[in-house]
């Protein structure tokens, strides 16, 4: 079924039964559709509203500029604290859509193309002099329109009573047990992204100083609520430990993550293997776990990634697809740039989010850029999970606003996004 037809079917099925009725809350859905050949790419925003029966179409014609010039400008501003406000990205990415959905309390947003790499809340409205996160309108990201639930389903609270929570973090990348102490000024700016180029030069994966604190704090939070936990840290934070999990209610992974579009980092001469990497983005992103250093240093690094069953300390997206996560309510990737992936027309973004959802996870929290270790840990252990345990609901906007009060720049609070139901 063509995507645009699927959009109408799913949106009408969810929103139109309420159309014309008196409502205490106005809702709408926005589906981005990327189309056209590379040189003439365009974006359509299909807007369906709960109180009208006629869909609206907003066309953003400058697809090439959106994906290159405009996105480069946006990313340059959010990927580090520049002490400057990005006054252009709102106009380029959202204002034409915002003009059509004013007055709607809740917006269900399904991204396509470059919009998968944006956190809409980080856009700054120059007229209102506010980030979108500071406005009352709630924007909920859904990976697919079928993820939009009925009111009864949305009000259903997350329950962990009949399951358990799996917490993975602070892996011993080199196999030794030297502590990573979170005391220096360096730790405040340390990133959770893994620079493959840098590693191939110096051969060292740096431990995350706040990862162990994060995992142990979360363990205490869940145990205090009477929730069963399975914790894997240091030597036990292995690839095999994750592969052995059976449908935890929550899977939280705190480690380095990487994605690369440059296949030459894996193989230079073998054209057959290079073709495999080029055609399968799932082979070019991974999470680093215990004992991964020796595997990456090995001359067989590229071959180990190709062998899905091999325990090399690198959990690729290709291997994630094979996990047993049916019934898992939430996967949280407290690692950097786990939201990045290969943009493929008509297929969304091939990345960790898609891999975990194919494995059965209902929701995935991931990062779009290199969130500093300190702020990533703070977001998870002080705001996101405490509120989840208190309300039995996931409130990303509230958690991000709390971090924003202490660290105002989007670089610190806007990196994490949630996709799913």
What labels would you give this structure?
421 residues; alpha/beta; Rossmann fold; six-stranded mixed β-sheet; 17 helices
Largest sheet: 6 strands, mixed
Helix content: 25-40%
Gyration radius (Cα, Å) is: 21 Å
CATH architecture annotation name of the largest domain: 3-Layer(aba) Sandwich
The protein's oligomeric status is single chain
What is the approximate shape? globular
Task: Report the count of strand segments.
Answer: 18
**How many helices does DSSP assign?**
17
CATH class identity of the largest domain: Alpha Beta
Low-confidence stretches: 16-22, 181-188
Q: How large is the share of residues in beta strands? A: 15-25%
- Taking the alpha carbons of the first and last residues, their distance comes to 22 Å
**Largest beta sheet: strand ordering:** 9-8-10-14-17-18
What does this structure look like?
The chain starts with a helix and ends with a strand. Helices cover 33% and strands 20% of the residues. About 4% of the residues have low confidence. The chain folds into 2 domains: 152 residues, no CATH class; 247 residues, Rossmann fold. With 421 residues, the chain is an alpha/beta fold.
